[in-house]
Design a protein that fits this description.
92 residues, alpha+beta, four-stranded antiparallel beta sheet, 1 helix, 4 strands, 29% strand, binds zinc ion, Ogr/Delta-like zinc finger
């Protein structure tokens, strides 16, 4: 498994329900089959929204942790799994 730490703009994603972090995350990539990797994002505190249901993890042929893959993984394994209660103020 490989991981990459990344930082995103404050207020652009829902905060971690455990620690309130909105900026510092870690992307994970793990090969699960010959031509399939799972990619997902966790908080820097280790909170993993896909821990109990890893069917939510994004499938990717290469599992490369490049910017585009990380953004897609952020969208489907973090943003879409949290209620959007902590977004940036409108018009900010
Ligand atoms: Zn956290």
């Amino acid at each position: 498994m490989s991981t990459t730490d990344f930082t995103i703009k404050a207020g652009s994603v829902p905060a971690c329900p455990k620690c309130g972090n909105q900026q510092h995350f870690r992307a994970h990539s793990e090969r699960v089959a010959e031509d399939c990797c799972e990619v997902w994002v966790t908080c820097r505190c280790g909170h993993d929204l896909t821990q109990d249901d890893n069917s939510e993890r994004m499938e990717d042929v290469w599992g490369a942790l490049d910017r585009e893959t990380i953004i897609n993984a952020m969208r489907c394994t973090w943003i879409s799994l949290l209620p959007a209660t902590t977004t940036a103020p409108a018009g900010a």
